[in-house]
Amino acid sequence: xxxxxxxxxxxxxxxxxxxxxxxxxxxxxxxxxxxxxxxxxxxxxxxxxxxxxxxxxxxxxxxxxxxxxxxxxxxxxxxxxxxxxxxxxxxxxxxxxxxxxxxxxxxxxxxxxxxxxxxxxxxxxxxxxxxxxxxxxxxxxxxxxxxxxxxxxxxxxxxxxxxxxxxxxxxxxxxxxxxxxxxxxxxxxxxxxxxxxxxxxxxxxxxxxxxxxxxxxxxxxxxxxxxxxxxxxxxxxxxxxxxxxxxxxxxxxxxxxxxxxxxxxxxxxxxxxxxxxxxxxxxxxxxxxxx
Amino acid sequence: xxxxxxxxxxxxxxxxxxxxxxxxxxxxxxxxxxxxxxxxxxxxxxxxxxxxxxxxxxxxxxxxxxxxxxxxxxxxxxxxxxxxxxxxxxxxxxxxxxxxxxxxxxxxxxxxxxxxxxxxxxxxxxxxxxxxxxxxxxxxxxxxxxxxxxxxxxxxxxxxxxxxxxxxxxxxxxxxxxxxxxxxxxxxxxxxxxxxxxxxxxxxxxxxxxxxxxxxxxxxxxxxxxxxxxxxxxxxxxxxxxxxxxxxxxxxxxxxxxxxxxxxxxxxxxxxxxxxxxxxxxxxxxxxxxxxxxxxxxxxxxxxxxxxxxxxxxxxxxxxxxxxxxxxxxxxxxxxxxxxxxxxxxxxxxxxxxxxxxxxxxxxxxxxxxxxxxxxxxxxxxxxxxxxxxxxxxxxxxxxxxxxxxxxxxxxxxxxxxxxxxxxxxxxxxxxxxxxxxxxxxxxxxxxxxxxxxxxxxxxxxxxxxxxxxxxxxxxxxxxxxxxxxxxxxxxxxxxxxxxxxxxxxxxxxxxxxxxxxxxxxxxxxxxxxxxxxxxxxxxxxxxxxxxxxxxxxxxxxxxxxxxxxxxxxxxxxxxxxxxxxxxxxxxxxxxxxxxxxxxxxxxxxxxxxxxxxxxxxxxxxxxxxxxxxxxxxxxxxxxxxxxxxxxxxxxxxxxxxxxxxxxxxxxxxxxxxxxxxxxxxxxxxxxxxxxxxxxxxxxxxxxxxxxxxxxxxxxxxxxxxxxxxxxxxxxxxxxxxxxxxxxxxxxxxxxxxxxxxxxxxxxxxxxxxxxxxxxxxxxxxxxxxxxxxxxxxxxxxxxxxxxxxxxxxxxxxxxxxxxxxxxxxxxxxxxxxxxxxxxxxxxxxxxxxxxxxxxxxxxxxxxxxxxxxxxxxxxxxxxxxxxxxxxxxxxxxxxxxxxxxxxxxxxxxxxxxxxxxxxxxxxxxxxxxxxxxxxxxxxxxxxxxxxxxxxxxxxxx
Amino acid sequence: xxxxxxxxxxxxxxxxxxxxxxxxxxxxxxxxxxxxxxxxxxxxxxxxxxxxxxxxxxxxxxxxxxxxxxxxxxxxxxxxxxxxxxxxxxxxxxxxxxxxxxxxxxxxxxxxxxxxxxxxxxxxxxxxxxxxxxxxxxxxxxxxxxxxxxxxxxxxxxxxxxxxxxxxxxxxxxxxxxxxxxxxxxxxxxxxxxxxxxxxxxxxxxxxxxxxxxxxxxxxxxxxxxxxxxxxxxxxxxxxxxxxxx
Lengths: 291, 958, 246
What we know:
The complex is a heterotrimer. Helices cover 30% and strands 24% of the residues of chain B. The longest helix of chain B is centred in the C-terminal third of the chain and has 37 residues, at 807-843. Chain B is globular and about 90 Å long. Chain C has a single domain (25-245), classed as GHMP Kinase, N-terminal domain (Ribosomal Protein S5, domain 2). Chain A binds chain C through residues 42-45, 48, 55, 57, 59, 61-63, 65, 82, 84, 86-91, 94-96, 136, 138, 140, 142-145, 288-291, and chain C through 26-28, 31-35, 38, 40, 42, 45, 47, 49, 51, 53, 57, 63, 74, 76, 78, 80-85, 87, 91, 93, 123, 125, 127, 129-130, 132.
């Protein structure tokens, strides 16, 4: 992972600040940096979103492709995650340098979506055992300024919100053979409900306290952190400890409580931004990377 | 710069891929009206007239432009092509839709647009800032296009108002869609149906006949009872074909029986390749050549192809019951083996309608405007048309196009397109046979002619680039008399080293016809010059074919030369190709050339050259025959025309001289040399010609026939065939060898053009050459032009272009050329047949000696050597008692009332013209010798009592 | 169904442009803060990002491939998995990406004054976000801006554009549909001030007689691109100086 090298004095300065609930950039421990979200930035995808969280810059593209359902879940579609840690973020990622981190993040995403409630996978089924939609969720890491997991989960949620899947009809004739027909009206499409899509809240243990949305510098001071995926209703769907340090059980409960609290707020503001953007419709001036 | 342009994008979901395309809107697209202050009017190219005067419409007397929608363009193209219709705005939306739906109409509309006099203007409305519309929610693509057309029409009207208020120039929207018209009127756009508008053109009443009569969907159900079952929609058909419940194939109507047809199933299924359809309802409105979907019946309902000849004579609509009766007739008892897969048409995948030639069968009701039209091609159903000029059209050959075939109609509906002239007139009949064989024969359009070199033409410095000056060589041409398109010339001279230099010089047509321009496209479309008996349909305009490209004597001409260095044994030591300038010293006929060679006293340069060539040619020919090249024979007829009336006054077979074969030999050699060169240079996209070896079964008839005369024909290789044909002589019967060669010709396959990258069998069977192409006649064959271009690129004399090196495009060209050549051949035969008829019409009835070529179950096919004429003598006829016939397939022989006919038997036949069917006159032959009572006719019987004996006989038998 | 008509009789291309017109170009420099230089460009629907990590890197350490007399230029091309119509499986490392990287490297070795920074390495990473034809050109143009943003001295701008040939007419700046039609296409990178060519590549067969026309179309298009890029750079510098001034 992209990292910075800090001197001992710098570390002490950060740790002491956190102790006092005053972080280097002026935030308190439970504050997020300002998040910029924009959807529909890549027009040839089914859905896309770009999220900027401080210096962390994430682009997510969702492509819907037709495929066959998995054997064990014949009447469901499925999601595929791929995370590309591009060399744009740091030269360390050049070549295959970013593959390990990418796989790690992708696996985390698989895990937080691996429950029935997050996305209605049944709506992705076209005809049981034969055709279903596969949503390829491709994450592109453009710049990393700490707290990758949270930013990526926000971007994934926004991109899924933005995803429009063309409506297809299955025509069946007397002989039982099936044919897929696509609607020629570009407005005729399925939307996914992202109501229950969780976001990740990462809590970094710095000293004796924990902070949300750590910057690169703060991450360098932290020994261990906890990833908690929270839905908009505050339900924890998944949890994972990362980092080389250790956590005591008590602080884990404390961190979970924080994550629920922070997560709810995060979801609410994300929803409101997405709906606001949606209501502007096609008249919205797209900014993308030009702004 | 593009900065001012608004940027929009269009998404299109095709398959499951989301495709995003940019779509730029512009504000610099002109409205096409010259002098328009707002947009500067047109930007070059065809434009509208500033103040259109005619046609005066009673509906809209003020000046106006027309703006038709897609369906009007598709269906009423005949009306739009009429010179009376001018000043039409063709929207890009409309043009694109037409392009997707019908390539022929698209081509026609493009031709019209290019005609300056028609003042058609194509308005790029999809890229105009003010006329672009986006598909709205819940709107399908068709509705969007309709709306786009209306928006454009409205824009035009507002735009033209700005231009000048006083002349009130307006755009009239022409649509046959009722809803669209209503919407347009609501939006304040003057809109009419095509019919309304055309009827209002009081000055041009004849236009009404050209209107396609399309009954509206709704109306159709109300009147009359429904005869046919509904056609399934395309999506259903495709689905059905995919799942195998329906089969897709080409509909081929029967020539003999209008209630029967076969469908050739596409793809390579082994079984059920051919499906029989019987009865009007099962044919279900399919027309010959349509691509249809058929449903196969269970085996219990299979039928056998009927042997009954049935012609549609119905005039009345209501005799459907009678049809059913007739259909019953077809179902004769047959044995199980004869049963063939049977089915019915469930839907049409693609119509392949074209304009049809034929004649009007005037309605019995005097005042009726509805008449039936009987096409010349018996496979096409009769067509109902509406016309006011029935009495003038009677007895004329006319062209009619089909517009549609409603479910309640016994016949398809169509409209009158063109009057060709009186039946039996030479011009009319020629026109008919050209049309029926799809030979493009219209005069060259202005666009095509504009690419001709400007006269007076001379060779410039630029032309001499990459070109050798060979004017000093003693070149001459040898052709049939009266030939004006001379595309080859030859020379031969001795070199200092004792070897011979032989040059074949071919007209450099590709110098004048540059790839991609209108001239090139037209030549490519025509593919070949078509020679009819009294007329030549040029592939390239006359200026080229008979002047600039023709290698006439004593003028400088551009040529493409193939020059060999040979030793005296005609072995090629060196081959080179070059573009050149030549100056032919003499244009000789075969006879003249022969005379020079033969007369020992003449010793000028030309003659010496000719003798050299002749000597070499003989060696070459010998070598070729040794390799197994076939010398085949087909009776070629040549008419002696009356110089004034151009009527044929005598018929004779063509005569061949040594010089014919001399020229031929060098042309073959040049073709082979060029084929090698271009294939070497372009292994993937050389245009070559191959002649596949026929399958052994083809020879059966030849072997059997020879056997009956105690001769053996070996057919295992071309060489053994050639040898055994040479040996098959009978001293008592000198003509036998020719007859055998004629039969052998019939066994051959058709030689075809192909692209080297798409095939791996290059062999030319007839010429026994491993590779072959056509290089020597670029004036009359398009294939040669392509070959010239390839060769020019290969030697660096000319530049290439993308299509030349695209093997798929080349394969398409080959496909068209093969089709055109076949059609040209058919047209030529038809022309010969027509002239033969004219000849016998004037000559009256004659009796001639003939040889039997084939023996059929109920007839013999005979050849009359004197005229090279082939005909069938039938022994079974309608309304006559059947004679006792025994047919033996093994020997081929036919025994009639005790007399046996073998192949090659000599008979005597009477030739006469049968004009009982005005549209299909034909030569009829009747047996004179040997005499068979009741079958043959007496030698001395005159025309009048031709049928007398039979009639008497009939009575007696009863 | 008839194939697409790439150039209508009226002289318009599929997307409404005329033969020699470019697509709409928008660009921005300094997109990312952490990189030494970065830029983003849109050429129609083709969108590309470029970042430059520059001069002091690469001395010693594992990545040392440093050259004694000049800077090493290292380029990586990658294309987002969702950038193309059909999803790509790998963003980089495939044959085409490697080739692109190599081409970019050649292009920029010709333009950057590498001898000014011996024993150092310049990393140029380009990322295509959306591909709609002319990706090479967009990458070069983006990378030029990013290199400029990083303040690395160059001989000149490198401006690239593609061109094709349809029915005897040269088309500038091909879109994906036009590329997919399979005609000849030419990619050209130009140093506009001197008119020197930094990279020239052509696919498919084209007769040399037509080459001049196509080359001229591409060169003119590249010069137009230069005008635009120059404008972007000046704008960026103006904004930056205002910020500094405050």
